[in-house]
Amino acid sequence: MMGTRVLPLLAAAAVLAGCSVLPSWVPFTGPEKPKPAELRPNPNLIGVREAWKASIGKIDFPLVVAVHGNTAMVADSGGAVIALDADTGRELWRASAGAPLAAGVGSDGTTAAVVTRNNELVALSAGKELWRQKLNALSYTPPLVAGARVFVLGGDRTISAFDGATGRRLWTQQRQGEPLVLREPGVLLAVRDTLVVGQGGRLSGLNPLNGTARWDAPIATARGINDVERLVDLVGRVSRVDDSICARAFQAAVGCVDAAAGRAVWTQRASGSAGIHGDAAAIYGTESTGIVVGWRRDNGQRTWTNDTLLHRGVGTPLALGRSVVVGDSFGFVHLLSREDGTLLNRLATDGSGMAAAPTAAGNTLVVVTRNGGVYGFAPQ
Known about the structure:
Layout: E1 15-16, E2 19-22, E3 48-55, E4 66-68, E5 71-75, E6 80-85, E7 91-96, E8 101-107, E9 112-116, E10 120-125, E11 128-134, E12 144-146, E13 149-153, E14 158-163, E15 169-174, E16 180-182, E17 188-191, E18 194-199, E19 202-206, E20 213-218, E21 234-241, E22 244-249, E23 253-258, E24 263-269, E25 277-278, E26 282-286, E27 292-296, E28 302-306, E29 318-320, E30 323-327, E31 332-337, E32 343-348, E33 359-361, E34 364-368, E35 373-379
Parallel strand pairs: 2-16
Antiparallel strand pairs: 1-2, 3-35, 4-5, 5-6, 6-7, 8-9, 9-10, 10-11, 12-13, 13-14, 14-15, 17-18, 18-19, 19-20, 21-22, 22-23, 23-24, 25-26, 26-27, 27-28, 29-30, 30-31, 31-32, 33-34, 34-35
């Protein structure tokens, strides 16, 4: 996904339940746009082929691909939601949310959920609408569908739970924070019997039955003299291995939290704005300049950096097999070595840039572009 860049406050946008919302990306308006790095020759060191291609409408919201087994669910800006067989690209079902989308897709494999720009939470199953519920504020984070419930992280920092079968609101909790939030997916996941949520620069563990707090662990603390400088919201995706959850705070830090103990293990300053991913040994992320970085998972020390993709708008990575997969704003997908960050292979799409972070579904790498191209790549 394209790296996040912040608008000046005088151009900042809508007021949302007391919070201003900054767009996830805006065109560069400085005196001289940095020149993207020229691509080096493709070494083609690992075999990857395009297995299939599907199409949806254009995408201008922060899409997250929902995966359950071999099924990948995607959505477009107009409200179409599609489930695909990740092995073949065959369409399993298609539905409409009835309005343009602001967030999606979340799914447990049976129920899919999205949020419209009309502030409606819409639940779907097998191509049919189950229910819809009005929200108090817009959300940019895909709903979490888990435990027969649907959880929503609102742009006003509310956390709400809904009955998965009926849509009945079960509880709502709100935490105060800085006055600005990002128009970007936040952190919302289930870890054992705890709902883990990003609120400002902190990871919080909540009781999913009633929303009460169990623990709170800081990744970054707001600093600065204005609201933009103090913005440290946690951004998705995160890297989870058992009880270790690692996340990025916008333009401030990366860090890992022990969810069993409810404490921060380490944090390191980092200037990126896109989510991270990782494995048991390391986590991987991109900086705002386009540098790709690996950190040791146990202590946060850097293991390698790759500066060959400067100013190419690289976004959230995916750790997959031998590779760290990153897409750029020119429609290329780069497969870097987990060991040292060197280029292993490069894949081309339609040139419109990434609309979602690369995602693994079964044995397939799924990539979605802003023009609505959905690509399935498989190892040869």
